[in-house]
Amino acid sequence: MSTRLDVSVLICTRDRSALLQGCLDSVLRCSPAPAEVIVVDQSRDQATRLVVSRRQGAAVPVRYLRGISTGLSRAKNQGIAACAEGVIAFTDDDCLADPEWVETLTQPILTGRAEAVVGRTLPERAVGDLEETSSVYAPEGCPVFSRRTHPWRVGGGGNFAAARDVLRRIGSFDERFGPGAPLESAEDMDMIHRLLRAGERIVYAPNAVIRHRSWRSAPQNRLLSRAYGVGAGGYFAKHVLAGDWISGWRFAARLGIRTIHLLRALCSWNRRGIAEQAIYLVALFEGAGRFFVSSSRTAPGGATDLKPGEEVRS
Q1: Domain residue spans in the chain?
Q2: Highest CATH level, class, for 4-216
Q3: Which pLDDT tens digit goes with each residue over 28-69?
Q4: Cα 260–265–270 angle (5° rounding)?
Q5: Which has the closest alpha carbon to 314: 83, 89, 58, 11?
Q6: What is the DSSP letter of 137?
Q7: What are the tens digits of pLDDT across the range 255-307?
């Protein structure tokens, strides 16, 4: 058996058991392997629990946590609190990890060269009536991230690792952000913003490859564009109100860039581009408005025969 690294892999999921199977298997095939894999499940049925239970008892411990209420940020916070290792690697249930992913993503943290790392995210080719994912991060070279780097230039939460102590020092994921929460996305951008502003070292590991699956239809991708816009609008509003005036300039820049993209899509009659850009632009203002009026967290989720927060271990 290959050596296990002092790394916890955290996967949060809700009602996507079929996708989770592939993600979980790809992580368990990594070599060197992580010390543990934790799945936080907010699903409304038992399908995900069964997927995890079939993979328990193997060489790598797989721990199942029944999610407390709903919302990706809440699930991440619950999972972080349960992680036993000093480094936490995050991926999403619709991603597939390359065999060396755990090692290449976490090595800069384990060797003391960084407090957080982002990897390369490539698209899986679309099949049939599905659209290729737009959730891609593959910059050229090795970008250097500073305190003033725009979080959107740093990557996303589906291929991310951080030292557990750093996450605890920075504070929890903001539970107003992310899928299942009022602001629908950008929980990872908000966290990266806070890490950068705190002066934590974030580096890019181009060989840490995750493949984001293209499983959404055109209507589902339009909903995703709206969610991205809502989250971005809320993110900009949050940090402008906190006195980070560069976020106001970035909001204006985002409006300008997206408007240019919309005009280009109109000129070439790119229907997907027209729909996505128009929806995103409207959602930016909606997200900013939601942040201004939202002062409470999401409501608790449904009941289950496993108490919220109860853990099933391998």
Answers
A1: 4-216, 219-293
A2: alpha beta
A3: 999 999 999 999 999 999 999 999 999 998 899 999 999 998
A4: 165
A5: 58
A6: B
A7: 999 999 999 999 999 999 999 999 999 999 999 999 988 744 443 333 333 34
